[in-house]
TrEMBL record:
Alphabetized GO MF terms: oxo-acid-lyase activity
The protein's name: Oxaloacetate decarboxylase
SUPFAM superfamilies referenced in this protein's UniProt entry, alphabetically: Phosphoenolpyruvate/pyruvate domain (SSF51621)
Superkingdom per UniProt: Bacteria
Source species: Oricola thermophila
Pfam families: PEP_mutase
Length: 290
């Protein structure tokens, strides 16, 4: 089974799929090694890791495609990618999906914001008309094919309210979305309403479990019980890595030694193992050069 078919199968299975966020090829290796079914490449993490910039729509589609290729080269599981708003019109969206598919993505989520887009948990977002988003969904489906997983995201909760967001999402499901993602519900009442009103459609629902956002923090079992079965953890690994790097730098500057925190750092052997050094050395021995 291809990775694209695997991802679609996960969505249809009815069981919970955790989309653990990676921000570079090394962290993607960690995600796969930890036993997750897919690697998630979110826009916030990608912009931070690749550009050192906030998630404000400044990455180009080709930059993201290059990011996908590097991750695809070191992982074997499906890759789910944040496609922002398709990077433009329906025509741009068709090219974006074709580029992401060629780079190794097995699916995307795509939102109904205008350019310049913003992270879903930031203020000041603006929406495209529903008909424009439907055109993008149809263009994405044609470009990606039936096996390519297409999640339609709406940011309407923050702008027009939960009822309007649910209405938009239902229209996106009719247009051919494989799953629905209503970002940034700000209360348990909103979360419960999404599961209650959209559950009867029989389309998988996506929950953004980002620990830094506006949505209530819930455990996996609680999220499942509310009717969601695709759960994103977009930047949690990156936040942990940031804290760890800061600890090393601050400790060395203050104490002049890292001996007090060695047990909180990975070993060089761990890194060598994760990078597959032994496999590369064996390959080098098979094909010696003078």
């Amino acid at each position: 089974m291809s990775n694209n078919a695997k991802l679609k199968s996960l969505f249809r299975s009815g069981r919970t799929t955790i989309a653990m966020g990676a921000y570079d090829p090394l962290s993607a290796r960690l995600v796969e090694r930890a036993g997750y079914d897919l690697v998630y490449l979110g826009g916030y993490a990608a912009a931070a890791a690749m550009l050192g910039l906030p998630d404000l729509g400044m990455m180009t589609a080709t930059e993201v495609a290059d990011h996908i290729r590097r991750v695809r080269a070191v992982t074997t599981v499906p890759i789910l990618v944040d496609a922002d708003n398709g990077h433009g019109s329906a025509l741009n969206t068709a090219r974006t999906i074709a580029e992401f598919l060629a780079a190794g993505a097995s699916g995307v989520h795509m939102e109904d914001q205008v350019l310049p887009k913003k992270c879903g948990h930031m203020g000041g977002k603006r929406l495209v008309p529903v008909r424009d988003m439907i055109s993008k969904i149809r263009a994405a489906r044609e470009a990606g094919g039936e096996e390519f997983a297409l999640i339609a995201r709406t940011d309407a909760i923050a702008i027009d309210g939960t009822d309007a967001a649910i209405e938009r999402a239902a229209r996106y499901a009719e247009a051919g979305a494989d799953a629905l993602f209503l970002d940034a519900p700000e209360s348990m009442a909103h979360v419960e309403q999404i599961g209650r009103d959209l559950g009867p459609l029989g389309v998988p629902l996506v929950f953004n479990a980002a620990s830094t956002g506006k949505t209530p923090t819930l455990a996996v079992k609680e999220i499942e019980a509310l009717g969601f079965n695709v759960i994103l953890y977009p930047i949690e690994a990156m936040l942990a890595a940031l804290a760890g790097a800061r600890l090393v730098m601050d400790t060395l500057k203050v104490e002049g030694s890292l001996e007090g925190i060695r047990d909180r750092m990975a070993s060089f052997a761990d890194m060598q193992d994760l990078l597959g050094v032994a496999k590369m050395e064996a390959l080098d021995e098979r094909f010696p050069t003078s």
